[in-house]
Design a protein that fits this description.
The complex is a heterodimer. Chain A has helices spanning 2-21, 23-59, 81-86, 130-136, 167-170, 178-185, 205-215, 224-262, 266-277, 282-313, 321-324, 342-368; strands spanning 64-70, 73-75, 77-78, 91-104, 109-115, 125-128, 143-147, 153-161, 173-176, 191-192, 194-199, 219-223. By secondary structure, chain A is of the alpha+beta class. By secondary structure, chain B is α/β, with parallel strands linked by helices. Chain B has one domain (2-226): P-loop containing nucleotide triphosphate hydrolases (Rossmann fold). Chain B has seven helices and ten strands. In chain B, a hairpin with a 2-residue loop joins strand 9 (212-217) and strand 10 (220-226). The longest helix of chain B is centred in the last third of the chain and has 16 residues, at 175-190. The two termini of chain B are 19 Å apart. In chain B, 48% of the residues are buried. Classes of the chains: A alpha+beta, B alpha/beta. Chain A binds chain B through residues 2-7, 9-11, 13-14, 17-18, 20-22, 270-271, 274-282, 284, 371-373, 375-377, and chain B through 46-47, 49-50, 55-56, 75-76, 79, 82-83, 88, 90-91, 94, 96-100, 103, 106-116, 119, 155, 159, 167.
Chain lengths: 377, 229
């Protein structure tokens, strides 16, 4: 074992010296390789982080949300529907919800206004998400003015700032009292935004949703699974779109890498001849070239991934935000919590390193099988 | 003892450019002596050297090393014999450019997996012995002809081989450097090593250190001269 380690150490030493000889060429290759890994890893990390955020949202989402439809559009639900739904067998709980979006023209951003079911907010006051607090300098005790759609100014006093459980849900959230909400959006007392339904047996969610739709034909019952699928589709579509745009760059890199890796110069062939003449086996030459490929691709991978991590979690995916963050129109700004998925790292590692290493080894194997007597000629 | 029996080497066999480089050579090379293969360019001496040094296999005939027939051994076994038994000094020295002198000297020992520190010490000792102390970190391409040859000799000695093979060792050296080379050959001989050279340089062929000169022409041995030291 010790002999094997010493042997690898010697090969790595020689590989590093060998790489340093063509410093410019190898550095250029590493830079391009790093950029490709950076872009791919950024897309993956960003989508992954958004999925996590979405999962955080959905973990607290009701099993079924009931919305009323008018001419194919979302409308308010009559409050009486709550009792009708509660009466359905298998329904554990049905709660009417009041929530909506408020567009702030000053900041060109949307807030989510909500009447909380689990806490009481005093009329005239508001509990706000940290993004709103940051943008509007909303410290507890300070006033916050909102202009309703009918042109009436509403004054709120900031009563508190929400915890950062999930930036995606908490960043733009503003919790207000029911009276203020209805007044702000002119929603009558017998109307609700939607109804959140929980079910006794999770396996019956689809059945209960079907029952609700049958009993109340003017509503649609959306299950948590439906929302999850919609999120997934949106993320996959966006991720796919960026990856398709990336294909050209990836192909260009593959051509560059293939050219560099597969085109052995006369000098390199001569060197292989010398190494074989002085006692290296074909497998030693291939092993050394494997180290060369591994060192280049691993260096590029580590740099690319580290830069992508910083780009996504430190600089808010500045470069891809417009393409990937559809929520930018809904949210003033939110920060993603860092998360790395081992499987995803492994996949990226294999997909980016393996082709390069193979492209390096195949021509070397062909060259390394030549007779060592070329060194004498 | 190295023994060649009716050894032939044909390049591009069966093609229009087929070339018989060595034709039915039978030769015995004794241990611990200095043998020179002498002949004009194209006489087949370098090809014969590659067959002796396990760098190539004969097309026909037998090559015995210490009584063992190595003519038909697979590449892997030939490499092992080559690595342990022979040290090579090539005509253009064939140092690897861009890497240090020390690394060039250590290269043949890398596949053996010896302790890196001990290997480095061994290489430095060899460089010192050949008057190259302080040159270890220099790049191979910065060396003069004489220095490059001494590095090539150090590289040939790193695995402590029994046989040293040198192809036209004085072809790129002036008289003084050629004499210095022959002095080193004398030292190697004194250590009990076998030395096989190719050369058509009279300075080498007529040197005192040389025990035997084997003349070649057109791939065959033409005469045998025995020069006792």
């Amino acid at each position: 074992m010790r002999r094997w380690i010493e042997r690898q150490r010697c090969l790595v030493d020689f590989t590093v010296s060998s790489l340093l000889r063509r410093r410019g060429k190898n550095l250029g290759l590493i830079v391009v390789y790093t950029i490709i890994i950076f872009v791919l890893a950024s897309v993956m990390l960003f989508s992954q982080a958004l999925r996590r955020e979405a999962a955080a949202v959905l973990s607290n989402a009701p099993e079924i949300v009931v919305q009323r439809m008018v001419a194919g559009r979302h409308d308010t639900v009559p409050a009486a529907y709550v009792e009708t739904i509660r009466a359905i067998r298998g329904v554990a709980q049905a709660e009417g919800r009041l929530w909506g979006y408020y567009f702030d023209p000053g900041l060109s951003a949307n807030y989510t206004l909500m009447v909380p079911a689990d806490r009481t907010v005093e009329p005239g006051s508001a509990v706000i998400g940290h993004a709103i607090a940051r943008e509007r300098n909303g410290l507890p005790g300070t006033p916050l003015f909102l202009l309703s759609e009918r042109g009436k100014m509403h004054k709120f006093t900031v009563a508190g700032i929400l915890d950062r459980v999930s930036d995606l849900i908490a960043a733009d959230l503003m919790l207000v009292a029911e009276r203020d909400f209805r007044s702000m959006f002119a929603i009558p007392a017998d109307a609700l935004t939607d109804i959140a339904v929980s079910v006794r047996n999770p396996r019956e969610v689809a059945t209960i949703a079907a029952k609700i739709s049958r009993i109340l034909p003017d509503v649609r019952a959306i299950t948590r699974g439906d929302i999850l699928r919609t999120y997934e589709a949106a993320f996959n579509w966006r991720e796919g779109m960026v990856l398709v745009l990336m294909t050209g760059a990836v192909l260009a890199f593959l051509i560059l890498a293939w050219d560099k890796a597969s085109g052995l110069s006369a000098e390199e062939r001569r060197e292989i001849g010398i190494l074989k003449a002085v006692g290296w086996e074909t497998s030693d030459v291939i092993r050394q070239k494997l180290w060369e490929g591994a060192l280049i691709s691993l260096t590029a991978f580590l740099f690319g991934y580290a830069l992508a991590y910083l780009h996504v979690f430190r600089f808010d995916a500045l470069l891809f935000e417009p393409a990937l963050k559809g929520w930018a129109v809904l949210y003033p700004r939110f920060e993603l919590r860092p998360s790395v998925d081992a499987f995803q790292v492994g996949t990226l590692l294999v997909l980016t390193m393996l082709p390069y290493i193979l492209a390096t080894v195949v021509p070397v194997w062909r060259a390394a099988t030549i007779d060592p007597d070329v060194a004498m000629r | 003892m190295i023994r060649l029996t009716e050894v032939t080497k044909v390049f591009n066999q069966g093609r229009h450019n087929e070339h018989h480089a060595v034709k039915g050579v039978t030769l015995g090379i004794e241990d611990g002596r200095v043998t020179v293969l002498k002949g004009p360019s194209g006489s087949g001496k370098t090809t014969l050297l590659t067959l002796i040094g396990c760098l190539a296999r004969p097309t026909s005939g037998r090559v015995h090393h210490g009584g063992r027939d190595i003519s038909g051994l697979p590449e892997r076994f030939l490499t092992e014999i080559r690595r342990r038994t022979f040290g090579f000094v090539f005509q253009r020295f064939n140092l690897i450019h861009g890497v240090s002198v020390l690394e060039n000297v250590m290269l043949p020992a890398y596949p053996l997996g010896d302790d890196h520190g001990a290997l480095r010490e061994r290489a430095l000792t060899l460089l010192e012995r050949l008057g190259l102390d302080g040159k270890g970190e220099a790049k191979a391409e910065w060396l003069s002809g004489g220095e490059a040859q001494r590095v090539a000799i150090a590289r040939a000695l790193i695995n402590d081989p029994q046989v040293i093979i040198a192809d036209e060792p004085t072809a790129n050296l002036d008289t003084a450097l050629s004499r210095a080379f022959l002095t080193i050959i004398g030292e190697l001989k004194a250590e009990g090593r076998t030395v096989i050279l190719t050369s058509h340089d009279p300075l080498v062929c007529e040197a005192d250190v040389v025990d035997r000169v084997v003349a070649m022409r057109d791939g065959r041995l033409t005469e045998r001269e025995l020069v006792e030291a």
